[in-house]
Amino acid sequence: MLLKKDINLEKLPQHIALIMDGNGRWAKAKGQPRLFGHKAGVQTVKKILQISAKLGVKYLTVYAFSIENWNRPKDEVSGLMTILLSAIRSELNELNKANVKLNVIGEIEKLPTKIRTKINEAIELTKNNTGIRFNVALNYSGRWEIVNAAKKIAEDVKNNNLEINKIDETLFSSYLTTRNMPDPDLLIRTSGELRISNYLLYQIAYSEFYFTDVFWPDFSEEEFYKAIISYQNREIRKGKISEQL
């Protein structure tokens, strides 16, 4: 069994991104409705956030709800919104006490009013916290984010607030929702699916990927350690050759 002592804290990924997949299939396997799985998944988020903070991970970004998820059955979408609102209400004070800084990325303005209000309250309450930064991708799409950044840059050029020759990767990144934080070092996806589902498309250019067959509600502390150790055992070259490292 893997334990915290098996992790090399000197090679810890600074930013971990998660695609939390498999809630519905996990519930179906137990003869339960899909929302049962989503509720269980919330507890896994809480657990992994706590473990990440104890390890010393600086940023944890989770894919909670994509723009494409609106295409799911209406009762599931409604249930997901209810679970989301309930989770924010029940966990906010604990997050704040734990010194977690909450951030939300995505088209927040298109979320239901009650959720937007609670999100803004949570961000305001935790804005001065100095612990792990917990980023929740809500109503998010990687393509939307890139297009949105391009529009903002075009507007600034049009208004003579930006010169075209000043546009480079660093400047472009400053127009993304993840500005002021490093790109993910490690992207983890659960449930056996081998795709990135329109998630952080610009930011994961050099991220290491880890896929596991484990459904998200069953993603344990040991499974999390497996992902981190897999990352630590890799040669992170980023375009260089081994001899340059």
Q: Please give the count of helices.
A: 7
Global outline: globular
The span between the termini is: 31 Å
Flag low-confidence runs.
Answer: none
CATH superfamily: Decaprenyl diphosphate synthase-like
Radius of gyration: 19 Å
**Number of individual domains:** 1
User: How many β-strand runs?
Assistant: 6
Concise synopsis of the structure shown:
The protein has 245 residues and is an alpha/beta fold. The protein has 7 helices and 6 strands, in the order E-H-H-E-H-E-H-E-H-H-E-E-H.
Tell me what the structure shows.
The protein has 245 residues and is α/β, with parallel strands linked by helices. The chain has one domain: Decaprenyl diphosphate synthase-like (Undecaprenyl pyrophosphate synthetase). It is 41% helix and 14% strand. Strands 3-4-2-1-5-6 form a six-stranded parallel beta sheet, with helices on both faces. Strand 3 (101-105), helix 4 and strand 4 (133-140) form a beta-alpha-beta unit.
